[in-house]
Amino acid sequence: MLDTVYNDFGTGYVPRWHGDIIDPAGAYLTPERHTLLVAVDGDGEVLGTGALDSRGPLHPPNPRHVAERYPSGATAQLRRIYVRPAHRRRGIARRLVAELLAFAVADGGYRAVYLHTDPAVEGAEGFWRSVGTVVHDEREDPGGGQGIVHFDVPLDLDALVPATTSPTR
Fold first, then answer.
1. SS3 88
2. What is the C-alpha to C-alpha distance for residues 94 and 98, in angstroms, rounded to an integer?
3. How many helices (H) and strands (E) does the chain have?
4. What is the pLDDT of residues 135-161, one digit of tens each?
């Protein structure tokens, strides 16, 4: 995850944005309704990550209508869906998202799935457009906002994983 903030985002570690990266157990493993997945190959190399928590987007910095649409507690927010560049376009992100959606469905308390992405990250916007629906594109705001694109993702596993390759837990 740190590789991503340095190499893909170019921001480096920013404590107010990336505290969960430094304490993944506290952010994703300890809270009952949160989870963190790590995709590894046969040699134990990390290929990608994906996380889910029950915190909706906050206003500010996100637009008010987005924060109101996705309240904490009822919203599963997808976070830290990263795949190393050398392993992209192999279905890893789609599989991670399918597993996270299965977790959200099993929880039973989530009514919506939300995520936001930085469209400057190569392939991110196209991937999320194939998975969800844009609810707000800040690039269309006066001044461009943060430049972030906000998505609604259906709690529908069939849309992500063909019936012949249903996810296992």
1. coil
2. 6
3. 6, 6
4. 999 999 998 888 999 999 999 766 665
* Both structure tokens of 43: 């040699």
List Cβ<8 Å contacts ≥24 apart for 123-126.
Answer: 123/88, 123/89, 125/149
CA distances from 36 to 50, 68, 105 (A): 6, 25, 15
Q: Where are the beta strands (DSSP E) in 30-160?
A: 35-40, 46-53, 75-83, 112-117, 133-137, 149-153
**Cα–Cα distance, 3 to 18 (Å, whole number):** 12
Instruction: Report pLDDT for 9.
Output: 64
Q: Give the tokens for residue 85.
A: 């560049």
CA–CA gap between residue 139 and residue 158 (Å, rounded): 31
Question: Considering Cα of 17, then 56, then 58, then 114, what sign does the dihedral take?
Answer: positive
Which is nearest to 93 in space by CA: 10, 8, 15, 6?
A: 8
Q: For the segment 41-99, what is each residue's pLDDT rounded down to a tens digit?
A: 999 998 999 999 999 999 999 999 999 999 999 999 999 999 988 998 999 999 999 99
pLDDT at 164 over 50: no
